[in-house]
Design a protein that fits this description.
Number of domains: 3
Enzyme class: oxidoreductase
Main location: cytoplasm
Structural class: alpha+beta
GO cellular component, one term: cytosol
Strand order of the largest sheet: 6-7-12-10-11
CATH class of the largest domain: Alpha Beta
Distance between the termini: 25 Å
CATH topology of the largest domain: Uridine Diphospho-n-acetylenolpyruvylglucosamine Reductase, domain 3
Oligomer: single chain
Number of strands: 20
Function: Cell wall formation.
Largest sheet: 5 strands, antiparallel
InterPro entries: FAD-bd_PCMH, FAD-bd_PCMH-like_sf, FAD-bd_PCMH_sub1, FAD-bd_PCMH_sub2, MurB, MurB_C, MurB_C_sf, Oxid_FAD_bind_N
Length: 357
């Protein structure tokens, strides 16, 4: 267990916001978590879990103990006629994990290439892109209960996956829990994910539902693309649309794509015929948040050093650098102004994707 004090967090969040952690523990094994819970000084203090920092907005210094997840490890757990079961440590970089599975001959995650962050954060957010969500490839995960130190395993149903949602984003219930296990309750702030297992179906089938991928397939003149080709296409598409956090600080898509009823969508289409929308399996209609923001004239606009990316209105970026970086306050002022603008024009409330601290 490595404990550090007064740690700068600017290198630990992809937006590049300057802030500090009063106490930071580098967690490189499950035993490190148990050591934290057994430590007389650390055990009783609030905890805050940090992965790759790709989905957070820091509005000040972090007083709770920061658990920086750095558990590594990639392995094939099981291979059957119907699936490969692959396990990754929570501290593994997500994109590197996707690339590793393909290199090992285990396709299935290629549509999720180049999503920033770590493996441990992927179930929390139920990450998704280009027609695939994590829940479509999820087997189970291991976690540690920060209240009891007990290790437990959850399957997909117990994770309660939703659109960019899971049990890990909801506050714990005040009701007692049988046997100390956190079943049937929110796990935000209570559980730390240590390992995630993925079920990659056999035989593999490409997922090409998105227009951008279909265009790439037609351009390449390929009827049946390989998983590696889809991986490469997704990387190219994302790099063309989204800024590299190492060059221009950002947290990826800042707002969730809102869903409305067919009647609500028809009403908006009557006023805005060009609105980008997608029918969902449950009968609802998903609206493109980036289109809504762009239609309100926000692309390229800024508040202080926080700005709307000129190539993709769904992304907010950091126009500052180093000691003159953007502040979390500037980011959230811009975000709230965008929310107000979209609501006044469309009657739609945009919900931020990043966790605001």
């Amino acid at each position: 267990m490595v404990v550090e004090k007064n740690v700068p967090l600017q290198p630990c969040n992809t937006f590049g916001i300057a802030a500090r952690a009063h106490t930071l523990v580098r967690v490189r094994s499950v035993e490190d978590l148990h050591a934290v819970l057994a430590d007389a000084q650390l055990a009783s203090l609030p905890k805050w879990v940090l992965g790759g920092g790709s989905n957070i907005i820091l509005t000040g210094d972090v007083k709770p103990v920061v658990l920086k997840m750095e558990i590594k490890g990639l392995r094939l757990v099981q291979e059957t006629d119907r699936a490969w079961i692959v396990e990754a440590g929570a501290g593994e970089v997500w994109h590197d994990t996707v690339a590793w599975t393909l290199a090992q001959g285990f396709p299935g995650l290629e549509n999720l290439a180049l999503i920033p962050g770590t493996v441990g954060a992927s179930p929390v957010q139920n990450i998704g892109a280009y027609g695939v969500e994590l829940q479509d490839r999820f087997e189970s995960l291991d976690a540690v209960d920060l209240a009891t130190g007990q290790r437990f395993t959850l399957d997909a149903a117990q994770c309660a996956f939703g659109y960019r949602d899971s049990v890990f984003k909801h506050a714990p219930s005040p009701s007692p829990v049988d046997g100390g296990l956190p079943r049937g309750m929110g796990l935000a702030g209570r559980a730390v994910i240590t390992h995630v297992r993925f079920r990659l179906p056999r035989p593999w089938k490409p997922v090409l539902g998105y227009l951008d991928l279909e265009r790439r397939r037609v351009e390449a003149g390929v009827d049946q693309p390989t998983a590696q080709q889809i991986f490469d296409w997704v990387c190219d598409i994302r790099r063309a649309k989204l800024p590299d956090p190492a060059v221009l600080g950002n947290a990826g898509s800042f707002f969730k794509n809102p869903t409305v009823t067919p009647d609500q969508c028809a009403d908006i289409i009557a006023r805005e015929p060009r609105i980008v929308h997608y029918p969902m399996p449950d009968g609802s209609i998903k609206l493109a948040a980036g289109w809504l923001i762009d239609a309100c004239g926000w692309k390229g606009k800024s508040v202080g050093k926080a700005a709307v990316y000129e190539k993709q209105a769904l992304v907010l970026v950091n126009r500052g650098q180093g000691a003159h970086s953007v502040t979390g306050g500037e980011v959230m002022t811009l975000a709230r102004a965008i929310q107000t603008s979209v609501y006044e024009r469309f009657g739609i409330r945009l919900e931020p994707e990043p966790v605001v601290w």
